[in-house]
């Protein structure tokens, strides 16, 4: 089994980033990547997928956003070549943008019917192949040298021949933000579980009853990391089970159906994910990537200087 295609969902308007996301798609906000270059968030996510062997990417976007994304990337490439002629870094970045544009396509989610519907919109692109599913407002940072988070997930999916979702042990006070699951630990394979039950953003009281996973630290639960490898059978489940009263349900109920019908694993990915749409999420992502990359010294120095200045202001008050 080979996983060639990735889907990035980026149709949400980013209300939590208003007013910035009202004029610029949040996936086009700039972040300094680990290689020290400023890049749109969407490019960083796409390069995560390419590093895992992905060959084609479909971005599910809001109506009218596809041409805006293409125009923005084309303008970025042209500016790099015209404004920074002779710079090695500019040529390298322009080459990366060209590679992205040659492998990128867009499909519009005509109505805001939820995450499950956004994924279903990519069905014609995916066809009968497995897919890597990524979120357009998450940045991922691997703790494994030389192996990105997506690569960790893809490796297991190819080995096991089944759907695999990335998870992260999460403290109980945060589980109401995420899809949360439990399952049976696979003997002799640390951090791998056969998924049994998934609940979307559960209350703590419900999680205590339904989602305890033996072997995890007390007060921790397995929560979605924002990254999945899914078999094409998920589209049939989405079609059959995800519309109620004319409204598409979240993806999670369809993933529960998937777990009931076929082998479906969870992998504790070694790394961190940053939700740039939440309050201070963009800041956390930038600090995380800065500390992990070529701008480590500059990032650390800046943080120390800012903390010192804040402390001085506090002492003067």
Description:
This protein is an alpha/beta fold. The protein is 41% helix and 26% strand. The protein has helices at residues 20-23, 41-51, 65-83, 88-102, 115-120, 123-126, 149-160, 204-210, 233-241, 251-261, 281-292, 296-316; strands at residues 5-10, 30-32, 38-40, 56-61, 104-108, 131-135, 138-142, 163-171, 179-185, 192-200, 220-230, 243-244, 247-248, 264-268, 271-275. The longest helix is centred in the C-terminal third of the chain and has 21 residues, at 296-316. It is globular. The termini are far apart.
Question: Which terms would index this structure?
Answer:
317 residues, globular
Count of separate structural domains: 1
Terminal residue distance: 63 Å
Q: Runs with pLDDT <50, length 5+?
A: none
Specify the structural class: alpha/beta
What's the count of strands? 15
Our Rg estimate from Cα atoms comes to: 20 Å
For this structure, the quaternary state is single chain
Q: Give a quick account of the main beta sheet: strands, pairing sense, barrel closure.
A: 5 strands, mixed, barrel
Compute the number of helices.
12
What is the CATH topology classification name?
Spore Coat Polysaccharide Biosynthesis Protein SpsA, Chain A
Instruction: Give me the CATH superfamily.
Output: Spore Coat Polysaccharide Biosynthesis Protein SpsA, Chain A
Secondary-structure element order, N to C: EHEEHEHHEHHEEHEEEHEHEEHEEHH
For the biggest β-sheet, the strand order reads 8-11-9-10-14
* Strand coverage percent: 25-35%
What CATH architecture do you see? Answer: Alpha-Beta Complex
**Portion of residues within helices:** 40-55%
**Global shape:** globular
In CATH, what is the class?
Answer: Alpha Beta
Mean pLDDT comes to 90
């Amino acid at each position: 089994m080979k996983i060639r295609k990735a889907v990035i969902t980026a149709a949400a308007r980013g209300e939590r980033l208003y007013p910035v996301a009202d004029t610029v798609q949040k996936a086009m906000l700039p972040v300094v990547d680990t290689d020290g270059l400023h890049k749109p968030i969407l490019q960083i996510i796409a390069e995560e997928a390419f590093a895992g062997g992905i060959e084609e990417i479909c971005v599910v976007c809001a109506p009218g956003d596809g041409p805006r994304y293409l125009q923005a990337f084309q303008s970025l490439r042209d500016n790099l070549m015209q404004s920074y002629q002779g710079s090695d870094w500019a040529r390298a970045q322009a080459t990366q943008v060209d590679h992205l544009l040659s492998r990128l396509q867009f499909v519009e989610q005509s109505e805001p019917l939820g995450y499950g519907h956004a994924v279903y919109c990519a069905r014609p692109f995916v066809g009968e192949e497995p897919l890597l599913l990524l979120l357009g407002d998450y940045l991922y940072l691997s703790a494994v040298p030389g192996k990105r988070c997506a690569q960790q997930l893809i490796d297991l999916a190819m080995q096991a021949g089944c759907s695999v979702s990335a998870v992260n042990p999460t403290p109980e006070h945060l589980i109401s933000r995420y899809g949360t699951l439990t399952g049976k630990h696979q003997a002799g394979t640390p951090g791998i579980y056969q998924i049994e039950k998934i609940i979307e953003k559960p209350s703590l009281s419900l999680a205590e009853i339904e989602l305890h996973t033996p072997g995890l630290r007390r007060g921790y639960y397995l929560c979605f990391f924002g990254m999945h490898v899914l078999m094409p059978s998920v589209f049939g489940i989405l079609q059959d089970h995800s519309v109620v009263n004319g409204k598409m349900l979240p993806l999670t109920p369809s993933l529960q159906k998937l777990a009931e019908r076929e082998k479906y694993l969870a992998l504790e990915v070694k790394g961190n994910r940053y939700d740039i749409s939440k309050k201070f999420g963009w800041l956390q992502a930038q600090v995380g990537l800065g500390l992990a990359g070529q701008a480590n010294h500059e990032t650390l120095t800046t943080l120390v200087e800012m903390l010192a200045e804040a402390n001085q202001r506090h002492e003067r008050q």
